[in-house]
Amino acid sequence: MKVIFSYVKPYKWTAVIALCLMLMELFVELIQPLIMAKIIDDGVRAQNQQMIIQWGAVLLILSFIAFLAGVINSYFSSHTAQSFAFDLRNALFEKIQSFTLANYQKFSTASLITRLTNDVTQVQTVLFMSLRIMLRAPLAVVGSVVMAFVVNAKLALFLVIGAPIIFVFLIFMVAKGVSYFGKVQKRVDRLNRVLQENLQAMRLVKAYLRGKYEASRFEQVASHLKVDTVKALRTMEYIMPVLLFVMNMSLLAVLWFGTKQVATGTAPLGDIVAIVNYAMRITGSFSMFAFIIIFYARAKASAERMTEVLAVDNEVESASSSIVGASSDMKLGELVFHNVSFQYPGTDATVLSNVSFQVKSGEKLAIMGATGAGKSTLLQLIPRFYDVTEGQIYVEGKDVQQWDLQELRDIIGYVPQQSLLFTGSIADNVRWGDTKAEMDEVLNATMQAQIHASVEDFPSGYDTRVGQKGVNLSGGQKQRLSIARALLRKGHILMLDDSTSALDVKTEQALWDALSEESATMLVVTQKIRTAKGADHILLIDEGKVVAYGSHEDLVQTSELYQKIAISQQEVK
Ligand SMILES: Nc1ncnc2c1ncn2[C@@H]1O[C@H](COP(=O)(O)OP(=O)(O)OP(=O)(O)O)[C@@H](O)[C@H]1O
């Protein structure tokens, strides 16, 4: 809660104003009985109309002030809560942007979405409600007790006799509530995950006629959410009866001893009436407590989940040293792997084992190997999506761990295996690679990526809207747009992870011809011997180990595995 509520700090003054206004409302509420008493004693009973008008006017003015305070309080409370939520959401989003891939894997996407939306809203609601009404209930209890002491301290003592029991009970219920509502939020995560997966796989669901199966999967997580929420709310239902029982016992004691005091003449009847009145107010405020605890417990659980995100330590980033710039003997785009071994964080399977190779400036390296051999993993180590477990990777003569991370990633153009596009125009999507690029640079990139002609054929050309995840584009179009986006970066190293799998032979050949003019060093993961043939060297990986390295002509002679692949693709020559 502490970390999360530090985001209220910039708005502390609006929060303080809201609190003061709320106190003003409470003050009016608490002195209302006294004024009523005045009207009855000095006005009605004394038959003094002047007094009735005078105190009536005071009551009216105070009520109007309370009304105004309420309206202005609403304004300040919502300003504070909305601004707080805005800042918190942005902070969470920024933190997530800085996550290492290993950290992404720790949280599921659905859980991160819930944390950024639902969890923020829970805390925002509690903040607003606290400033507006929720804090009023406990303060009204305290105020009523104080007023009761002012009226008759001996009788008022009976009102606080149950306080320790109530205090311990409330702490117990908050702890229970936090644990139960923490579970509820996890259930919300799961529900979102099933929903997200289902919506993303809608085509598959239809093709496999899995609508009913998916509906039952959803129903299952929805019913878990329902059961856990009901359990949490049922537990909270004990709050009211327990508080009311303790309060009613106190009230009985006040009446019992109060009657005795009246009988012996030690207290006026008015005192008992007033104390009973305050006791009723306390009881009334207690009826709010169940809601307060539910809201508070839920918000606390949400706050803990958000703190988890904000507290993430991004090991890769923090390891980045302050040495900036390249070494003097650097060659643009030169890359060296030296005895690199790698295991994914939290796993014990060795994905890459003792990998060593070198790619000279401007060279083209094709990386081949069976599925799961470790090709994509190898590429991801270069921009430090993950850090090597053993060995070193040198880019332009400098260990990647000594590069300023931004500078390192700035010189790398990366096209992942799965083409990802964003909602927006085609031009926006290409420009995503370099937001400052001019239109002629965009055109250069799209021409090189062999997508320009297709874009021109669209009725709106470069302004064509790309649907969610590029639904309105073909697989090959998406791949070529992703390549254009990477080319626009004009990096020293271009990494293509099986990014031409959806292209026809002619288009692919045209693309490689265009890319052969590129001065960047190129790493191309491919399954096709035809593509590998055009590379300067081929790196063949099997189960994370380098099993062959050389040109196509060399490997056809020397590597049995390469020969097998070549024969299967009828590309032995
Ligand atoms: N994020 C991850 N966490 C843990 N293990 C992973 C992760 N990504 C991949 N692996 C494992 O690492 C191994 C190599 O995967 P990688 O994706 O690098 O293979 P690949 O050669 O690119 O395969 P493909 O040609 O099918 O894309 C696989 O055994 C895979 O299960």
Structural class of the helix and strand makeup? alpha/beta
Count of helices? 23
- How big a fraction of the residues is strand? 5-15%
Please state the CA-atom Rg, rounded to the nearest Å: 35 Å
Instruction: Trace the largest sheet across and list its strands.
Output: 6-9-10-3-11-12
CATH superfamily of the largest domain: ABC transporter type 1, transmembrane domain
Query: Mean pLDDT, rounded to whole units?
Result: 87
CATH class descriptor of the largest domain: Mainly Alpha
Largest sheet: 6 strands, mixed
InterPro entries: AAA+_ATPase, ABC1_TM_dom, ABC1_TM_sf, ABC_transporter-like_ATP-bd, ABC_transporter-like_CS, P-loop_NTPase, Type_1_exporter
Subcellular location: Cell membrane
Domain ABC transmembrane type-1: 16-298
Membrane topology: Multi-pass membrane protein
In brief:
The chain has 573 residues and is an alpha/beta fold.
Plain-language structure description:
The protein has helices at 2-5, 12-45, 49-97, 101-106, 109-134, 136-151, 153-160, 163-200, 202-207, 211-236, 239-264, 269-310, 315-319, 375-381, 405-410, 426-431, 439-448, 452-457, 475-488, 505-515, 529-533, 552-558, 560-568; strands at 335-343, 350-359, 364-369, 390-395, 398-399, 412-415, 424-425, 465-466, 493-497, 521-525, 537-542, 545-550. By secondary structure, the chain is an alpha/beta fold. The protein is elongated. It contains 23 helices and 12 strands. The chain starts with a helix and ends in a 5-residue tail after the last helix. Strand 11 (537-542) and strand 12 form a beta hairpin. The longest helix has 49 residues, at 49-97. Helix content is 64%, strand content 11%. The protein folds into 2 domains: 2-311, ABC transporter transmembrane region fold (Up-down Bundle), CATH 1.20.1560.10; 335-568, P-loop containing nucleotide triphosphate hydrolases (Rossmann fold, 3-Layer(aba) Sandwich). Helix 2 (12-45) runs antiparallel to helix 3 and helix 7 (153-160) packs antiparallel against helix 11. The strands form 3 sheets. A 6-stranded mixed beta sheet has the order 6-9-10-3-11-12, sandwiched between helices. Strands 2-1-4-5 form a 4-stranded antiparallel beta sheet, with helices on one face. Bound molecules: adenosine-5'-triphosphate (ATP). The site of adenosine-5'-triphosphate has 13 residues, from helix 14. Adenosine-5'-triphosphate (ATP) binds next to helix 14. InterPro entries: AAA+_ATPase (IPR003593), ABC1_TM_dom (IPR011527), ABC1_TM_sf (IPR036640), ABC_transporter-like_ATP-bd (IPR003439), ABC_transporter-like_CS (IPR017871), P-loop_NTPase (IPR027417), Type_1_exporter (IPR039421). It comes from Lysinibacillus mangiferihumi. It is found in: Cell membrane.
